[in-house]
Amino acid sequence: MILCCAMTIVHAQHTFPLTNIPAMARYQDSLIRIGDQAENAQNNQARFEANAHFIKTLVEALKTPGSFNHRFDSLKRVSILNAPDKSFRLFTWYLPVDDGSYRYFGAIQIASKDGKLKLFPLIDATEQLKDPNVITSNKNWYGAYYYQIVPVSSNGKSPCYALLGWKGNNSKTSKKVIEILSFENGEPSFGKAIFVQPKNPGNNRIIFEYNKLNSMTLTMDKEVNMIVFDHLAPFNEEMTGNFEYYASDLSFDAYKVAGGKLKLVENVELKNDPNEMDELYIDPKDKKIQAIKKL
């Protein structure tokens, strides 16, 4: 609610290009300090109080003329993704909760052609979504921490974007997600049935769930134009459907970007080793835990 009230669509009139380095540097210093307070807080109350202050300060920063051109590259706990055409950028971050779950926060900042700056809050409604496959708006978002953005478009159609994200789940499992972001009448929309696959052809997003002590590859391989990911399987057939016992079975599948669709390709051979994004994340609260990469 704090995020929604603070970040109701903002219009800031300005002329491109603008920079406001002194003001943005001050905001960034404040955000670093407040972010450290949230990260180091010892309980939920202190953590969420610091995060509320972080949200307020971030909104003020993003309302400042010239903020769209500021990189905020010192905010290590916030993922900032730029659209390939520079039309918007996406901020996401998370807070760990004492029970082992997580809460997600974010915003979409849009620079429009007429010089007005729009800001859409992302309100995590994971717990309220009875169907995780439903198409949502920014106000009932299936929260995640996004680390890659992949353009998916075809000639004559409005562009959409595949967002690759980590979604820490609970004390036993983690999730990763392929989310589809598009804009309908200028408003952000999450989820779209662009996945071409034999099973579950009506999926609006893809959700992977696996044992929390394992890592999972989910990354865009630009050389082959495919989103490559570990094939997850239970340790044995008796554990089918119990995701606490799921991990990679040493094979890889992929979604090929073609014609505005994501087409499933099974049993992909990788030429390169998985990269550091595989480790997003084992357990952000315990840096001593080492990933068990394979079965």
Outline of the structure:
The protein has 295 residues and is α+β, with helices and mostly antiparallel strands. It contains three helices and 15 strands. It has helices spanning 2-6, 21-40, 44-63, and strands spanning 79-82, 88-96, 102-111, 117-123, 136-137, 145-152, 160-168, 173-184, 187-190, 195-196, 206-211, 218-221, 226-234, 246-258, 261-265.
Describe this protein's structure:
The chain is an alpha+beta fold. 15% of the residues lie in helices and 35% in strands. The chain is built from three helices and 15 strands. Strand 14 and strand 15 form a beta hairpin. Helix 2 (21-40) runs antiparallel to helix 3 (44-63). The protein starts with a helix and ends in a 30-residue tail after the last strand. 33% of the residues are buried.
Apparent shape: globular
Average pLDDT taken over every residue? 87
Number of strands: 15
Q: What percent of residues are in strands?
A: 35-45%
- What structural category characterises the helix and strand content? alpha+beta
Cα radius of gyration in angstroms: 19 Å
What ranges have pLDDT less than 50 throughout 5 or more consecutive residues? 8-18
Distance between the termini: 42 Å
